[in-house]
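Lecture notes, structural biology module. Today: joint structure prediction for complexes of two components.
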Amino acid sequence: MTLTDTGDETTEINMNRVCDLLDKTLINQLHLMEEKMRCELNIESSINSGSIHLAKSRYIMGQNAVSIARLPVESSPEFSASTVCEITEVDNMKQFRVVENDAENTVNPLHWFGVLVPQNLHKAKSIFQNTINFVAECANIQMRLLENMANMDMLNEYKKTLKS
Amino acid sequence: MALQAAVKGKLISVIGDEDTCVGFLLGGIGEINKNRHPNFMVVDKNTPVSEIEECFKRFVKRDDIDIILINQNIAEMVRHVIDSHTSPVPAVLEIPSKDHPYDASKDSILRRAKGMFNPEDLSMFGAENYNA
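The predicted structure, tokenised, for the full assembly:
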């Protein structure tokens, strides 16, 4: 066996490994795409049911009682979000996690719409809080998709160098 | 301690129609910071596209925002700006709205992911056999 033969064999082994990895990454990509679509549909159904409760509250309280007119504007006093997200590292992978903000100046958003608000507005609030969890899940899948795409690019580049 | 907690968590911002913004703000993601900058923008039919673009760019630049939610129909209006954002953080998530259901073929990330499946890559799965 000559030195050139050994080199060719190593290249072939490397090529097989790269192709195997590319196959796995590609399959993973398809799974992630499917997962993202499923997650978006969860968000959609959640937003739809939340919107129905907002509409019911609007019917009870009046057209302008549940509208952007009640949302804080730039001249409103400063306040912090009660729900925030943080990036944690699980198994060497960055992940978004929804956490409650324990800052002192958070507000109860229900108070923007009045003191005695209908039950539907409470329901809408809990539905949208749940939607935020779906959002974080979807953002995590998106992050993995981007990572996967970067890996595929890298493997394709390596494959090209092996070919040449 | 409070300062440490405030630094730890980052914001979720939203650009959307009235119901999306009211809903997510009810969920508790809304904030007006000490510079009086809100992390949300309500878009209606009279909002100019340039204003949406500016707001999106401002949210991307802010280092206290980790996730930007944008209604898919609004994302369509500023598609070129969204496509130019490629970094994973802040994550830009296109969400459906009450009036516009989710369309996977319009989603920026899914289109990019789909673009990876070029005919050359798929040929190893025998894709040429399924052309009919």
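Point to remember: Chain B touches chain A through 56 residues (CB under 8 Å).
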